[in-house]
User: Fold this.
Amino acid sequence: MHVVSISGASGTGKTTLQEKLIEGYEYIRVLSHTTRSERATDRKGEYLYLSVDDFLRLSDLLWSVEIHGNYYATRRSELCRAAAQGRGASIVMSVDCVLQLNDFCAVQGIQHIAIHLLSPSKEVLSERMRLRGDSQKDVARRLTECGAWDEMAQTIDFIRLIPPMSPLETFNHVVEVIG
Assistant:
C-alpha cells in the first residue's frame, strides 16, 4: 500500500491529477475537511465542507493548515480507511504539511510518494483560477503565494518536483514516478 500526496499552488492541477489517478488506476481518495465554500467546479466528494465551529471540533487530525483564510485538514482515520482498502491512495494537500504525512506513513508502514506540481506562469495560473470561478481578489492573493510554495517544496528532499506541462503529460510523468 502506498499513498501519493499531491501538493502545489492554486491552479496547478492537483485535483485534476488526483481524479486521473482515481479513474485510471482505482486510487482511493483520502478526504480532507475544509471551511471554504464549495465551488461550482468542485468535484463530488472532493472535500467534506464544515463550518468553522465544526472544523475546530475535529479530532484525530493528521495535519491541518489555514490557507487563504480557510481551514483544511485530514484525519488520521481517513488515511487509515483508505489504506485499509489495499490499493493506492491519493491526497491533495499543502506542501507545508507533507512532512507530517511522511512521518505518519513511516510509523504506519505505508509508503509515501510526495508529488509537488511546480507552478506555470502567473498568467496561466490566473486564467485557470478565473475559469474555476475565483474572484479577482482571491486570484491576486493566491498568486503572491505560488513562488513561496514552490520554494518550500524544493527544500524537502523526498518530494518529487513535477515541472509545468499539460494535464496528460503531468499524469504520464507521475505514473512513471509512482512506478
